[in-house]
Amino acid sequence: MDDTLEEENNNAYLYMGLWQKITVTIRIIVEYIYSDIRKKPRSFKIGLFTIYLVVMFLALIQSAFSLSPLIFIQLAETTAGDTDLVFTPIPSENRTKSNTDIGPQNSNFQASQNLLNGFSLVNQTEIVRITKNIDEIFDTTPRWLMIGNLENPKENISKISDTIRSFFLLIDSQKEISIGLGRRLETDIINNNEVLVTSSGLRGLNATIGDILNLNIDIIQFLSTYVITENNNNDPESFIMAAFDTYLNGPLELIYGQNFTKQEYTGLELKVWSTWLIVFTDFLDNNPDQKEQIRENFKNQINQAGVSNDQNEVSNTIFDILFAQELGYFSRILGGFIQQLGDNDIVSIYLVEQIMAEIIADSLDFDIQLKVKESIKSPKGKWADGLGNIVVMDYRNATIILREAFLIALNNTIEDYKINSPTNSVQEIVAFNIPVEDLFNFIRNYTDSIKLEEYTLTSNLLVKDRVTKYTSKDNIDNFVLDVSNQFFDQVGYDFPVKITVPLATAIKQYLLLGNFVDNLVVSATFLLLMLSVLLIYSLMIGDVEEKTYEFGMLRALGFQKWWLIILLLLQAFTFAIPGLILGLITCYILNSLISMFIFDSAVLMSSYDIAKSAIGLSIGLGLFIPLASNILPIVRALSKTLRDSLDLYHRTINDILVNVIKLEKMGISIDQFFTAALLVIMGFVSYYLIPMAFIFSNIQLALAVINIILIVMIIGFTLLANILEEPFEKAILKLILCIFKKDRNLEKIIFKNLEAHYSRNWKTTLMYTIALAFLIFAGAGFALQTSVITDVLQSFLGADISIQALQSDKRGLDEYNLRMFLNKTMNEDPTFLYDYSFTTLMLSQIPEMPNSHFISTLAKFPFKKIFLGGVEENYLRSCLEAFYIPNSYDQNIKYGTLIDGAIDGVSGIYDRSDVQDREAFYDPYSLVGSQLIRKQWYKDLSYEKPNLYSTIDREINIVVPQGYIYEAGINVDTPSILYVDRRLYRTNVRHMATKVPGYFFSSYRSLVGNGLISMEDALYIVNDFFQGDIRQGNLSNQRANLYFQSLPKNLTYGLPKDNLQIRFARQTTEQERVDFCNALRNYFLNEQTLLFDVITLKKEAEDTFYFITIFYVLVAIVAMTLSFFLILVSFVSNVKDNSWEFGVLRAVGLNKQQITRVYIYEAISLITASGLIGTIVGLVVAITLTLQILMFTEFSFKFIFPTEIFLITFLGGFITATGASYLAVLEIRDKSISTILKGLQ
């Protein structure tokens, strides 16, 4: 009957015209959808709000994160400075070795060669000319950096410090403002003697804006930073004598013979010679042609002498300047000096140069007066934040100010020599014969012609379109390579500059965080997509079940099945498209506000438009969600016969799974298909994606793979744990009824509802469990990983304050002055500092020492590489004990005890109670094995012992990583041997540890770690290797001698120190640490010394990660909102399906409140059970991931529960379930029993 009716309607439909069919059908669909919206506005509103919320939130997050490069640029600028490329000079010693061995071989000449080869400047004029031809370069500006001591001359005021060690930065303030270098720091052009000073420095000196401060400039210290290396010492006079040797004595001695400048003459001899010299110079002044010929002869002799190009150029310049003046003027000055000498006084050129060097050296340490223009709290990228205290001045003013300050200091020094030198001494005579006025005029005239901007220490370049260049690591590498290639293509690859990219280097670190954030967005998108698809599906499937009769009538009236499909899709799109449009509009408004904030903060401009990726994601979600959600409802609507559709008493229990049966008959199993697909995907990920990520160092792909695996793990664990859903529900329900005893009579009814609603509730609780598990995992996992990252930071640096000299600075720290300051601080306030400790430069990093050291058993096999470093006995007392993980101890010695009660294993290396030191002979050729046999062997053959010297065979105490017990076969009970070059040292392993703060220790056998030895043992090894005493300067290696002479004075054991660990005795405020760190910086030798405030760094890291926690909280709120509607839709369907039973229960005597509590208890038991399962799954996966990370870091596990996210998700779900179930019952609870039983709306 029903098939005949449907066939007749279809035939009638065929006789209609095409456009009439379309018009009629569209009108019916539109009217039907409009009528349905009016009849059931709640479903429409829920669907609209779902699409709107998901689209708006995810599009906003995606669009906001697309601006992350701006944030990363801002953070990197603060860290590294607002410079894209920095051109620094390459010393000529690194470019060529020609002619460096020519000339007298003395220590000053050694220093002079270093001066010649170790210093150069960047030709800024050439850089500007070349970079104008490179399209990607916006502009360039010069900078100069020196170190000085800042003082407040005001008296009778309290000061935290009398002096503040500060960097003196010279800039072109006008140029930098115009090109936007340091654009986030709003400053005006710097004029006259005005300077910008960091606020911390002003606070330490108790100074304010407008005050006049003194800045002490030590030019020798500046030159030592850029010129002097380990080959000469830091003595100012030696440095100046090096300049004389290089540019004057060297060429003269090549022409007139070695030691020409040191040839001694009596005063009488010189007086005779000076008379002749005056006559000769007057003759040359009166005969320009002869004068020119003499000048050319001198220059030719220099050219033919084989001096280096730099020496030749400077020497020729000196002669040009000299012969351009009246030579008689100079000869008379010299004659005046000679006439004042006694006849028996002994004088040489070298002696006069030494006196001049003393005068100049004393004058190169001078003060300049500066007026504070602005106080700078944060540089905001104008310079690197890590530089600490900075004094910034415009270079135009600096040239004159520095020159006049030097001249004042030089004049004062000359006057001092006149007064304080012995009467009639050479020093006094030299001082009185210096033509001060003429000299000063010459210096002024000469410096007036110097254009400081043409030669600079660093040339700082900015690029165009910076934002796009820093969006990814590949973009950064491409633009750096492109710019550097274009530059060197034009100037040649031997051009003496080195290009560094500090901003790009810093941004790359943040891009790793960006990749991590991108994966967070993907995870959040996946989670919210699941919830929204299920919610829309629940809405559509509920409509299909309720409208089965309506769909049947439409089909009976001639409505074809494919039009029914269009009807269902358009019905979904009626709320999807408006929701998409509203979501994009709201997203645009909020994105504009976020963009405005970011643009204003970063002072960089991009577009206010929504990112294209965000628009694509929005449209994709807006279309995909209704399409994916309608697949099963459409299948459900079309799978019924017309008879079933017109059955008013139809219930969903009568559904027939036609498609499943058909597939099984075809031999296709859905379970097998998905299992096979999952295994194939797992194999592809394991064997292709993961190796590819490692091979190509694709961090983003690696994180994406890890993210997918974790999501699949969460889903898999949830599906497995969902087996416990039903027993959990029953247990929770029984617990609820135990609390509310008056409702125990409802127990069977609630159990019956749980069983009847199982299929619908299963989908709801499963999605809620997955969402909760993901959020708990993300919150707990991220909190645990944040803890791991901060632990790694603290373990690496080792103490509350860590001061480190870069590896490029072999001279290390000024130990003596730092130690004096720290001792003074501890005496003044015993509650402030607990302890401090210095460590030596790694022995392999000391110049001329071997790069590789090994440790082994007495059998000399197996052996393993180790890096040795000397530590003080109190090292661990100065470090963060929480990151010290000891293993085994030598039970034969005594150890100290730390604050937490742990045994101080490092202190054991200073216990020498059971060592066996003995006299020994060193034989480098090891001709025989025993000392006695060796001695007799040489005696019998009457041979001299080659390179044999007497020494002490000292046993070395050492602390080694725990992993060496496997790889090197050593332990605290086994004697061992240290290999240093070809030398063997008997060694006692006093302690083995998994972690020692500040050093690399591990329990893994494959890793090369550090070995800690005492200062005495370190000194013994170094002295034994160099066959001398580094403190006395009698080493066999001359280069090593010069290196150790160049170290700071008064070093304990004479060893260079590269690390200082400081531990506070109490909780300190940030301001206390800032003042303390500023005081410590007063004793830094150069900018290659870094200070780390570990407490502040930890706080900043935690603050950074806190923003990601906020992101998860927002995701949790959105997820709980969707869960509320999902539970509401599910319970509304449950109530409608059980409406007849609801009426019967009312008829047999249950009141409205009892019926309401039936559904509320059901909801609470469902959500609580799924919430517990989700929490457990999330925590298990988070702990599993963290334990895997801890396998590499080897830190102790710390459990951190994500309280905020748990309260929002679990308790929010509890409130959501209660509210949704109450609203679902509210719809029919107030209707009459007869209305409910008849099923009337």
From TrEMBL:
Top-level taxon in the UniProt lineage: Eukaryota
Topology term for the membrane: Multi-pass membrane protein
ABC3 transporter permease C-terminal domain residues: 524-641, 1114-1232
Pfam family, one: FtsX
Compartments reported by the entry: Cell membrane
Chief place of localization: membrane
TM helices/strands, residue ranges: 12-34, 46-65, 520-541, 562-594, 614-635, 673-695, 701-724, 766-784, 1105-1132, 1159-1185, 1205-1225
GO cellular component entries: plasma membrane
Record's keyword terms, sorted: Cell membrane, Membrane, Transmembrane, Transmembrane helix
InterPro entries, per the entry: ABC3_permease_C
Stated name of the protein: ABC3 transporter permease C-terminal domain-containing protein
